[in-house]
Amino acid sequence: AGGTRPGRSAVRGRRLDTYGDSLVKTNTIISSAVGRRNRKVPAHMPHMIDREEMEKLQNWEPMREAWQQTSSRRFRSPEDVQYAFAFFYWVMEAAAASGGTQRAALERFWARELDSNGDGVIDTNEFRTLAAIVKGGAVSDFDVMEVLSCVAPSGNATRHTVQLPNGAVVETVSVETPAVTLDGVLKCSRTAEALKRKVKERAPPTHTIASEAEVAFEMIGDDFNRTQEQLD
């Protein structure tokens, strides 16, 4: 009976390229989630993988089912997720677009920089720190009240005037707020954007993109003379 040539697909009538097809499959999933871009293929070499980031990637909703299917197969398939390609573009593009990842970063910042006593809400002093982040520097009482009106419209800010013995007059403001939580702060677009910007500024760089002139990668064949030229 007429068969197919070795390396040909009986269904598609073309050479099987499981690696290339898996790259296309993986790129399609990423593009559908974060947008189409020109993406390059990582070198076929050992790579260091951050296990925590890989766990997040494998639980990322747009790709979760594809990972499960990949791990269930005994042999390579064109429908597999390409491991290195998926990981690098998760770090470079998809992680930042993942709401869960951004939320986790905001929660860490909230606990470390704002909710200093760890009670889950921010008090008067902590609220002033929030106002300073929104303002981008030192704040006045007016700035505090302005942020309060956005974050907690039902809150109250009371001015207190005190005359010092030397005749100087000092005005202070006390802020009485309902339980201001992270969710409440994020409902105000102004404070939400300020927090996201600050988190991004504080975050360590996830990657650098080197010039192609700094990268040397050669495919070595079985032609000795050609290989010698490449190595020279």
UniProtKB/TrEMBL annotation:
Source species, domain of life: Eukaryota
Residues of the signal peptide: none
Keyword hit for Transcription regulation: no
InterPro entries: EF_Hand_1_Ca_BS, EF_hand_dom, Stealth, Stealth_CR3
Keywords: Transferase
Gene Ontology CC terms: Golgi apparatus
Keyword Transferase carried by entry: yes
UniProt record, GO biological process: carbohydrate phosphorylation; N-glycan processing to lysosome
Domain EF-hand: 101-137
A molecular-function term among this protein's GO annotations: calcium ion binding
Protein name (database record): EF-hand domain-containing protein
Taxonomic classification: Eukaryota, Sar, Stramenopiles, Bigyra, Opalozoa
